[in-house]
Amino acid sequence: MKKIIISTLNAPTPIGPYNQAVMVNDTLYISGQIPLKAYDMKLIEGNIKKETEQVMENLGYILEAADMKFENVVKSTIFLSDMDNFGKVNNVYGSFFENETAPARETVAVKTLPKNVRVEISMIAVK
User: Fold this and answer.
1) What pLDDT shows up at residue 103?
2) Given Cys at both, which of 56, 68, 87, 89 links 63, Cβ 3.0 to 4.6 Å?
3) 17 pLDDT exceeds 90?
4) CA 57/CA 4 separation, integer angstroms
5) SS3 category, 37
6) Quick one: DSSP state of residue 42?
7) Which residues pair with 33 in a beta bridge?
8) CATH class held by domain 3-126
9) pLDDT at 101 over 90
10) Which pLDDT tens digit goes with each residue over 67-96?
11) Which three-class secondary structure state does DSSP give residue 85?
């Protein structure tokens, strides 16, 4: 199995021992992204919509680095520290996809996330 590491300066540098994404054959596995800005590694905080937009932008940059788009995404996992934010996160997330071709997905409530953020999203995409 050949793994190709996908990395871009447009998305945040990993904050642990992992890569932004790994490509195996035509499948891209994107690590969970949190609302960090790549240029200064500071968190977007205080507005769940803006936080989710930043997460989706980070994911978009990683997809782009692999010559893919959101239409290539086949699976997403959303982690929320508070399910009361589900509706707002869902609206932002949904704006990046066409309903007919939206990927499979689950949303999981968790006690805490890295850096105490409120949302983290990971994706799998296929060329």
Assistant:
1) 98
2) 68
3) yes
4) 22
5) coil
6) P
7) 121
8) alpha beta
9) no
10) 999 999 999 999 999 999 999 999 999 999
11) helix
